[in-house]
Amino acid sequence: MYRIRFQLYALLVGIAAAGVLRVGGIKIYTPDEVEAVNGTDVRLKCTFQSTHTIVPKMVSVSWNFRPLSKGQEESVFYYHDKPYLPLEGRFRKRVSWAGDIMGGDASIMLREVKFTYNGTFSCQVKNPPDVHGNAGEVRLRVVATASYSEIAILAAAVGGGILLMLIFVCIIAGIRACLKRRKERDLTQPRRERKDPTLCHPARALHLYVKEEEIEIDSSDGMISEPSTKDPSSSSEEEKSSDECDNDDD
């Protein structure tokens, strides 16, 4: 009786564990559609998230191709510890590894795509014990020329870069021209010497000097005093000289 109950309990636990593993399986992300011009290289992006720790030697990546026309599914690329390139088929020497396992990236690069590459590419990643999950699918469209939207975006990006460069060059040229003009103006403009307004020609400043014989010493207190009498002519000459100094300063 107890053995039957234990077996039933173990069975229920196993079913529950299987359900948890399926629900919490590995998640794979790819774009819905990618467009590439005939003869160019294109990167098929595939990223993944695992509920378990990523062990590079345990992770495996499989890329397969399903053409638009009726045809059998074809292996494109396989990775397990190292990339394994196809030895035959339409993708021989046309595919390379462009991912990073530790970074959750399982992308590949297709070189010189052809119109025969039109179809659906599927990406499958396994990280044991996390092996459940749907494969990511991306549809590749190979066209003769780039679409208008892509050309417009590219032209806008290139034009914007050129415009910013021209603005930067104009700003630099304007600054240099301004500095050059300022330097030339400083070299050509004469320097003005400021004159002391208290100075005048020595010949017109005779009134600033006092003759020794005009100084009188008062014998009473020993103080120096001005002479008691002045020559009227000398006074007029002093006033005239002072006026001439003032006119000279003006």
Automatic annotation (TrEMBL):
Pfam families: V-set (PF07686). GO terms for biological process: cell-cell adhesion. GO terms for cellular component: plasma membrane. InterPro entries: Ig-like_dom, Ig-like_dom_sf, Ig-like_fold, Ig_sub, Ig_V-set, Myelin_P0-rel. SMART domains: IG (SM00409). It is found in: Membrane. Its main location: membrane. The chain crosses the membrane at residues 151-175. Belongs to the myelin P0 protein family. This is Ig-like domain-containing protein. The lineage of its organism: Eukaryota, Metazoa, Chordata, Craniata, Vertebrata.
